[in-house]
Design a protein that fits this description.
The chain has strands spanning 14-19, 28-36, 48-51, 56-62. It has 64 residues and is mainly beta. It has a single domain (6-62), classed as SH3 type barrels (Roll), CATH 2.30.30. This is Repeat protein (TIGR03833 family).
Length: 64
């Protein structure tokens, strides 16, 4: 799953996100979702989330 659909991303899931500072390079950071910040059902760049460690970014990959 690519993280562009809100229903695929739920708190507690392990995901790869791209932080705002890493958007140019595309470097991903792995973590566990604490809360969803995007309100719409779909976003072309990925759903924005806050991880349990406080980092905020857009979901690029969801681990099952």
């Amino acid at each position: 799953m690519d993280g562009k659909t809100r229903s695929d991303v739920t708190p507690g899931k392990v995901v790869d996100i791209v932080l705002k500072a890493d958007q140019r390079t595309g470097k991903t950071t792995q973590g566990t979702v604490k809360e969803l910040l995007t309100k719409s059902n779909h976003h072309p760049h990925g759903i924005k989330v806050r991880l349990t460690d406080g980092q905020v970014g857009r979901v690029k990959k969801i681990y099952e």
